[in-house]
Amino acid sequence: MGSDLTVVNAARVSYAKQSDALTEKDLRLIQFLAREGHTSPFRHAVIQYEIYAPLMVARQWWKYVIGSAHYEGTGDSLEAWNESSRRYITEEPAFYTPAAGQWRSAPANSKQGSGDIVAWELGEKYTRELMNYVDLGIQKYEAALADGICAEQARLFLPAYGLYVRWYWTASLQSVAHFLNQRLEHDAQKEIQDYAKAVLEIVKALFPVTIDELLSK
């Protein structure tokens, strides 16, 4: 909902003025608002995403969303989050399984994050073990359903963190920019970085001027 022009007109309404097309003056106004931290005009443009991601990504994303509503300077972030629930659905579960060349080592000087890619042989071992673990969980999940166990309890057998979930994320342009500034950083988890790049690609097509100004230089 909205465009770069929405931000401009939200700011200009203070003086009962409106722009019908972006001008150089409007571009300078967007730059000024972003540079000086005048954030309210950026909350009048809203974008909605449908996201399908492993639970480990969803929970990290959600942690950010909760925090952003109280983040200094953001005010009301205008966010909504509605997620599919295995209390109600029993569609075939899907899981994120890293390939042999995607397993990363523990970092040398930190308690979180990751280091370099491990040897292929070690990665292949853990890809195989994870696939076996997922298969076993699915078998037990399906057996529980077949025996009449309710879906909300049968799901306990599913390996949780790699399980894909689907949700709608509706957020103001300011809030999307804050997410991107956090999750495009080099020390963000690789998997959520990949999603952040996709979020950026979509939002940049819709709000090319504003998002460029809101992202950390």
Write up this protein:
- This protein has about 220 residues and is mainly α.
- It folds into 2 domains: about 5-85 and about 165-215, Gyrase A, domain 2 (2-Layer Sandwich); about 100-155.
- About 45% of the residues lie in helices and about 10% in strands.
- It has 8 helices and 3 strands; from the N terminus they run H-H-E-H-E-H-H-E-H-H-H.
- It has helices spanning about 5-10, 25-35, 55-70, 120-145, 150-155, 175-185, 190-205, 210-215, and strands at about 45-55, 80-85, 165-170.
- The protein has a 3-stranded antiparallel β-sheet.
- The radius of gyration is 21 Å and the shape is elongated.
- The model is unreliable at about 65-75 (pLDDT under 50).
How would you concisely characterize the structure shown here?
The chain has 217 residues and is mainly alpha-helical.
The strands making up the biggest β-sheet line up spatially as 1-3-2
Strand content: 5-15%
**SSE series:** HHEHEHHEHHH
Average pLDDT across residues?
88
Which key terms come to mind for this protein?
single chain; 217 residues; mainly alpha; Gyrase A, domain 2; 2 domains; three-stranded antiparallel β-sheet; 8 helices; 3 strands; 47% helix; 10% strand; elongated
